Amino acid sequence: MLYINCPHCGMRSQNEFSYGGDASVKRPSLNKEVSDQEWDNFVYNRKSLRGKHLELWQHISGCRQWIKVERDTSTHEIFRTFKADEEVAK
Ligand SMILES: [Zn+2]
Question: pTM of the predicted model, to two decimals?
Fold first, then answer.
């Protein structure tokens, strides 16, 4: 069982959260012309990385806030969590 430290609520069981995908994907700027390939990359194409990765999770059974979780995809170790709007230093 994973335990995730919600920046709003504190340490909670993974059962209270819902996985939301890769947190490193950036939406193209508004009013900017984008190619079909750029849009496909934003909407569909994801790398399946092994190792330390930044993910989005929603505390669905708690505060319902989206958070960022830095997690190792091979060991499931969680290193840090952030509020969704927080900039993450690498
Ligand atoms: Zn929470």
Answer: 0.85
Q: Name the residue among 40, 84, 44 with its Cα closest to residue 64.
A: 84
- pLDDT tens digits, 19-52: 999 998 888 998 889 999 999 999 999 888 899 9
CA of 53 to the centre of ligand 1 (A): 20
Q: How many domains does the chain have?
A: 1
In a domain, 40, yes or no: no
Using the mean position of ligand 1's atoms as its centre, give its distance from the Cα of residue 60 in Å: 8
Q: Is residue 35 part of a domain?
A: no
User: How far is ligand 1, taken at its centre, from the CA of residue 2, in Å?
Assistant: 15
Q: Where are the beta strands (DSSP E) in the chain?
A: 3-6, 10-13, 18-22, 52-58, 66-72, 78-83
State the distance from the centre of ligand 1 to the C-alpha of 26, rounded, in angstroms. 23
Q: Which two tokens stand for residue 89?
A: 């230093």
59 Cα to the center of ligand 1, angstroms: 5
